[in-house]
């Protein structure tokens, strides 16, 4: 069977609302012998498995082909990347949709330019799940009501999707106590009984299951199998003032994602070049699907859930958020 993460938004500095957006990409000499100027482009990327396509595309020369000299900068996630994009440190960066919805609600002019990763679309397996100890009495999403559940960031995509699934399963989502625990520490937190359950993503999900944990809900694929859970974004100024560069980036990253979708073993290999995941775990971990577009219905559903559960205070404008 073909096996197929996401920090939330930290408090944004008021300075980020007033700094200039990313300036023109620096031109250099020649783009792969075409006579066209190459543009140096910095992209903030969280070094996790879902972002394998951009590393693979760089290795395969897809960015060189369109005249982009790609400089991948390690980011700790969308929350940190958003101020970096707004301030001009990055031209583009990756983020989950909730973080961008929150940022736009705070007045930041940012927008997705392409999707990046989605669930497996296969019921009963995914790259994201809520795990419990093997002997836990928790058997379903509804059973999470009244329990302490670890998520990597409060009021973001993890707890929003979990609240929805608990309520859908007949449980009281208001009775869940969410606490912040980083993904690498989540397995120990459930083993030590610090929490009753924990949300984890790959490769931590496969590792936890191998060590005896049990999945009670695959929160992304169960929420909506068509939900794009990550994407690359830029400032509105960048999109308006440098449309040709944005189109080149879209072309290269979309080609990278199509290649990754068709070549899962190369995805596993490239992950080993920018993470510390060993070969055995890379071979066993579940891989995301890699769509090049956002499914609007699932994004609408996510925005409505975020509003309902207090993650947002107003419904997101998808026309302003999506490409």
Automatic annotation (TrEMBL):
Show which residues constitute the signal peptide.
1-21
Query: InterPro entries recorded for this chain?
Result: SsuA/THI5
Q: Where in the cell is it found?
A: Periplasm
The record, for SUPFAM superfamilies, names: Periplasmic binding protein-like II (SSF53850)
Belongs to which family? Belongs to the bacterial solute-binding protein SsuA/TauA family.
Tell me yes or no: is Signal among this UniProt entry's keywords.
yes
Q: Name one GO cellular component term.
A: periplasmic space
Query: SsuA/THI5-like domain spans which residues?
Result: 52-266
Q: Where is this protein chiefly located?
A: periplasm
Protein's name according to its UniProt entry: NitT/TauT family transport system substrate-binding protein
User: Which keywords does this chain's UniProt record carry?
Assistant: Signal
